[in-house]
Amino acid sequence: MLNVALSDCVQWAYGVAFFQVSASHLSPDSYDILVKAGTSVPVSQLRMMLQDLLANRFKLVVHRETRMLPVYELAVAKGGPKLPAANVAKSSPQVHAAESLPRIKNDAFLFSDAPMAEFAQMLTQLRGIDLPVVDRTGIAGTFDVVLKTAPAAARDGDTAALFAIIEDQLGLKLVAAKAPIEVLVIDHAEKPSEN
User: How many whole angstroms separate alpha carbon 43 and alpha carbon 24?
Assistant: First the structure.
């Protein structure tokens, strides 16, 4: 990890999004973290190793709690959803890593084989959508969703345009609400010890 802030390290180590980290007293300093392993190590073990490093070198102390936070609820708009047909379930489900951002093709976002909860998480990452998005559609299945002209709106951080695109093209809407979100609270952190 090169030129990373402690908050970035915490997000990756604990598998949480930026809005799930509560820390008012972290230093803005950046660090380079280099770890060598003798053999290939799974990501889950790398996360645990980084948690251990943060506890030992930064004296990091955290706890989890649930807080009511502002969110956008992804809901069905008036007139109903305009989603493509749900993907046909395969006899042996394909296991794939969830992507955090959609792909871009021909000035459109492509969300491949995404259930609504995963689609909502990807919307959270788009510039212009400033709150976490929580799926409240009640729609089951996975979908190959295309959002035309959305990349330009996201590049510009145009929240109103993104909301309109989602509603016009998908028959879904983002509604401001509050929801319980698990938060990682940083109780203590220090400058790291020397190498």
Answer: 28
